[in-house]
Design a protein that fits this description.
Elements (H helix, E strand, L loop, with lengths): L1 H5 L2 H4 L33 H7 L4 H4 L14 H8 L7 H15 L20 H8 L4 H5 L16 H10 L6 H4 L2
The structure holds heme C (5 copies).
One heme C binds next to helix 7, helix 8, helix 9 and helix 10.
Length: 179
């Protein structure tokens, strides 16, 4: 209780405690139907979390640097914040309630997979992060920090892979990418 009372009200509902002038502010979205990408079971906004509130990508996708599959964070990661943060605007509160309900009912949301290579392609995600850096997400995934809903921006076609390998002097041996 003491902790909660000590926090400024702005921090409690997740708004910036610092002056917002130099910060990106995620827009209010009323028409979700016009957003690119698949509609997810919970309207989780990357522009709010990573653009406005500046949570690093690796906070949630921590396995991106160590695994072939970067993975989607477990609800436990969300609840580390949303135990306390209930949301400012009513639209946020409604979506955060879904997160809390899912946690209570132990029913993790079934996120729709957006990027998926065919099974005959080998893509070691972590090798790319190691070589290109944790800031390189944007190179392949676009400006996720400004995306209210994630959509695929790169083709993920063979030509796309090979062009970058040529540029970086990486092998183009068929068997490296194909089993
Ligand atoms: C607060 C946790 C959190 C943070 C921080 C976060 N993400 Fe995510 N990310 C998610 C969740 C949850 C999903 C699944 C729902 C969705 O697609 O929006 C996801 C999905 C994605 C996807 C789509 C995965 C697929 O199915 O193909 C990409 C790409 C992605 N994130 C990139 C990023 C990048 C780049 C950053 C940093 C700019 C970032 N994420 C920061 C939680 C997070
Ligand atoms: C490091 C803290 C933190 C973590 C971790 C976090 N959030 Fe949030 N989340 C916030 C803040 C801050 C807001 C903005 C609250 C406001 O002002 O309404 C927010 C807002 C939201 C909203 C409403 C706005 C939006 O983005 O659509 C949803 C839904 C949400 N979070 C879901 C999630 C889910 C799902 C996860 C786990 C994958 C997660 N959050 C992890 C801090 C966090
Ligand atoms: C060299 C290009 C490249 C870079 C750099 C990159 N990704 Fe990816 N990412 C991909 C490809 C390709 C896939 C699809 C992989 C597959 O289907 O096997 C993917 C898939 C994903 C997924 C979905 C996988 C899953 O397990 O559901 C997430 C989340 C993701 N990337 C996050 C990130 C984050 C965060 C970063 C930065 C730290 C990043 N990526 C950097 C190319 C890249
Ligand atoms: C840097 C990674 C990479 C290398 C190197 C690579 N490929 Fe591919 N290849 C892919 C990816 C990704 C796909 C799936 C996407 C697509 O079809 O474009 C693919 C798809 C294919 C397909 C299926 C095309 C289709 O239309 O279904 C064939 C056949 C193929 N590759 C042959 C080769 C041969 C032969 C070589 C060596 C000369 C090679 N690949 C080298 C990444 C690579
Ligand atoms: C933005 C540039 C970029 C793109 C796009 C890219 N790669 Fe790479 N890739 C690299 C770099 C750089 C390395 C070298 C990593 C290292 O040295 O460990 C690499 C390494 C690899 C390796 C390991 C090579 C080895 O020697 O074992 C594989 C496999 C691979 N990439 C597959 C792919 C596939 C499949 C795609 C497309 C779906 C792709 N890459 C797209 C930059 C890229």
């Amino acid at each position: 209780m003491v902790l909660i009372l000590a926090l400024p009200p702005a921090a409690l509902n997740g708004q910036q405690a610092q002056p917002a002038s130099s910060r990106y502010t995620a827009p209010v979205i009323t028409d979700t139907g016009s957003l690119k990408g698949p509609r997810q079971p919970i309207f989780f906004r990357h522009d709010v979390h990573t653009g406005q509130d500046q949570i690093p990508c690796m906070y949630c996708h921590y396995s991106a640097a160590i695994s072939s599959e970067p993975g989607i964070p477990a609800l436990q990661t969300c609840m580390g914040c949303h135990q306390l943060i209930g949301g400012g605007p009513p639209s946020h509160q409604a979506e955060i309630k879904k997160v809390r309900d899912a946690w209570r009912e132990r029913k993790p949301p079934e996120w729709i997979r957006i990027h998926a290579l065919p099974g005959f392609v080998r893509f070691p995600h972590m090798r790319h992060i190691k070589a290109l850096g944790t800031q390189a997400c944007v190179t392949c995934h676009g400006d996720v920090q400004k995306m209210a809903q994630v959509s695929q921006v790169s083709t993920l076609r063979m030509g796309w892979c090979v062009r970058c390998h040529v540029k970086n002097n990486v092998t183009r041996d068929c068997s490296v990418c194909h089993y």
